Each structure stands twice: as C-alpha cells, then as structure tokens.
C-alpha cells in the first residue's frame, strides 16, 4: 500500500510539474526583429519589451530573424498563430520589400494585423566632408555640374536607404551612381572614408556617426525639423521643396488576431511609450513616440504601402 501511495504521489508531482512548465511556457511571448542585433528596430524592441511585458503580465523575449531585407522575420510572424504571443517589430522596410518584389513571401497588409504604433523616425542626408556643398541646394548644383561623378551608398539594393536616395535624385533631376553595401554601418563607413560621397540614412541607429568630422549633415529628411537635431534644416527648407522620406515603427501580429487581444496590446504599448523614461530613450534614437489606435495604425500602414509603390514607380527603383 505504501508503495502504491508512493507511486501516486510521484505521478501527481510529475503532473503538477508539467502543468507548471506549460503555464510558464505560455507566459513567454516573442517579439521578432527581422534584422540583426544592434540595429534600429532591435534597439526599439529592447527599449519597449520590459515595460510592455510588465503591464501585460508576460515575459517578452527578443528573437532576431534576419534575412532577405526583413522578409524572413516577417514570414515567421505571418505564419504564427494569431493569439498575440508572437509579434513583429516592424518598420517601413516591411512595405518596401513587397513594393519592389512581386514574389515577396507575404502581403504586408493582408497577412498582418496592425497592433500598435511606436513612433515616426526621420532620416538624415549625409555627405562626405570633402564634398564642396554645405546645403542641399549647393549639392544639387554640384551634382548637376558633375553628372555621373558622384556616388551614393546604401544598405543594399531595394533597402530604404536605396529607395530614399533614388527618390531624391529623381526629384532633384541629378545623376548620381548607386553603390550598394550589405548594411547601414558599411554604407556609413564608406561615406566617412570617401569611397562614396552621399547617403540618406535613418537617424535611428546612426546617432553615433553624426558627430564624425568626416561626415557633414546636410539636412533632415522629414516634414519638419526634429528634436534631436534642432539646428539642422529639412530638405524642403534647404533645397528641394516638398521632399520628405520618413519611417514608421510599430508592432504587427499575424492576420486575424482577435480584436480584444490586439486592443489590449495596443493600450499597453501606448502606456509604455508615454512613460517619460521610455519616451526619452526612444527620442534619443531620433524617433518621435506617437501612440495610435489600431484603426489609425492600419490606415498608416496602407497609406505607407501606397506611397512606397508610388515612389518605386516614379524613381524607377528595382531590388536588383
């Protein structure tokens, strides 16, 4: 009899331990970053994850799934269960890839749920300090007088940095040669070394480079000046009227997420980015925190996709 009770107690302990493990596992949620550690989206994800998890009562882990310009990580989320346990830390690159490639592994709108917007990020227009131009207007004049002699770097063909400069050159009517690299860091180092002369790059993840004396910041590529660089004029102010190129950052989930789950995460993230300490960290990266309701974020996502498709067409950009 004692042996029987002993076996029963052992089995019961096993069942309880399994239940505890299962409960703990369901408490672990993922934020997929579709690029390597250390990049802009990775930084934002790690800023918001602890407080978001605390409010929602879950443990968020950051999982970097880089590849194919963000398509690998995006595909992971698109195929995940729509229960809110797997989210994508997305940015404008989410819509750029599909706008360039009809064979993209997902539809950036239909295959995702717009959950929560984090903020809007500006870009900066950089030149090697040896380029004889101190404004966008001077650069356009210099480029027109030296057609085909200037180069611009990018983080790769079809990247946001490629698209931004291709759009600028088409609108300015100048001939500048594209030199693609494998990352934003490589593109920045190229301009600093003088191997290439120009680059439009996100402020997010690039703040450390802006004080490099080998680089000159010509303008911010946004509708208005930004708080982190208040003395730098916009492209519109300094030489090309109406030109802007910005990025959004936010959390996406798989399609068909229950509205209740989406709204709960949205409300929690809006609380997080309203926290002064978190907002300051986000702002330091050149991103303006901006809470949006799910419907507003969904509209922003669709509008951005339509805008990117228009830029791709007008600038004649391809992912090749």
Pick out its properties.
D-Maltodextrin-Binding Protein, domain 2; 320 residues; three-stranded antiparallel beta sheet; six-stranded mixed beta sheet; alpha/beta; disordered N terminus; 11 helices; 2 domains
Structural features, described:
There is one protein chain. This protein has 320 residues and is α/β, with parallel strands linked by helices. It folds into two domains: 8-121 and 247-315, Bordetella uptake gene, domain 1 (D-Maltodextrin-Binding Protein, domain 2, 3-Layer(aba) Sandwich); 123-238, 3-Layer(aba) Sandwich (D-Maltodextrin-Binding Protein, domain 2), CATH 3.40.190. Helix content is 44%, strand content 20%. The chain contains eleven helices and eleven strands. It has helices at residues 2-26, 40-56, 71-78, 93-100, 136-145, 160-172, 184-193, 235-238, 259-274, 276-284, 294-315, and strands spanning 28-33, 59-64, 86-91, 112-121, 123-128, 151-154, 177-180, 198-202, 215-220, 247-254, 287-289. The protein has a six-stranded mixed β-sheet with strand order 2-1-3-10-4-11, sandwiched between helices. Strand 6 (151-154), helix 6 (160-172) and strand 7 form a beta-alpha-beta unit. Helix 4 packs across helix 11 (294-315). The longest helix is centred in the N-terminal third of the chain and has 25 residues, at 2-26. It is globular, with a radius of gyration of 23 Å. The N and C termini lie far apart (75 Å).
């Amino acid at each position: 009899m004692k042996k029987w009770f002993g076996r029963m107690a052992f089995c019961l302990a096993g069942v309880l331990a399994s239940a505890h493990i299962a409960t703990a596992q369901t408490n672990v949620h993922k934020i997929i970053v579709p690029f390597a550690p250390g990049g802009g989206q990775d930084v934002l994800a790690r800023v918001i994850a602890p407080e978001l998890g605390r409010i929602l009562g879950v443990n968020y882990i950051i999982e970097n799934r880089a590849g194919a310009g963000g398509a690998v990580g995006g595909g992971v989320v698109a195929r995940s269960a729509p229960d809110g346990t797997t989210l994508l830390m997305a940015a404008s690159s989410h819509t750029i890839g599909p706008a360039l490639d009809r064979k993209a592994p997902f539809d950036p709108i239909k295959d995702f749920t717009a959950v929560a917007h984090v903020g809007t990020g500006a870009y900066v227009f950089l030149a090697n300090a040896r380029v004889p131009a101190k404004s966008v207007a001077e650069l356009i004049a210099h480029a027109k007088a030296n057609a085909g002699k200037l180069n611009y770097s990018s983080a790769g063909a079809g990247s946001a940095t490629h698209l931004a400069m291709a759009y600028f050159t088409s609108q300015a009517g100048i001939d500048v040669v594209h030199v693609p690299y494998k990352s934003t860091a490589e593109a920045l180092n190229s301009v600093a070394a003088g191997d290439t002369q120009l680059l439009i790059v996100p402020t997010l993840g690039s703040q450390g480079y802006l004080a490099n004396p080998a680089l000159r910041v010509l303008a911010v590529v946004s509708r208005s000046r930004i708080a982190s660089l208040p003395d730098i004029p916009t492209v519109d102010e300094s030489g090309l009227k109406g030109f802007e190129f910005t990025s959004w950052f936010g959390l996406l989930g798989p399609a068909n997420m229950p509205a209740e789950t989406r709204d709960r995460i949205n409300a929690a993230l809006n609380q997080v980015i309203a926290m002064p300490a978190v907002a300051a960290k986000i702002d330091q990266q050149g991103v303006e925190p901006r809470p949006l309701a799910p419907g507003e974020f969904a509209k922003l996502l669709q509008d951005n996709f339509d805008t990117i498709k228009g830029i791709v067409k007008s600038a004649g950009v391809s992912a090749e």
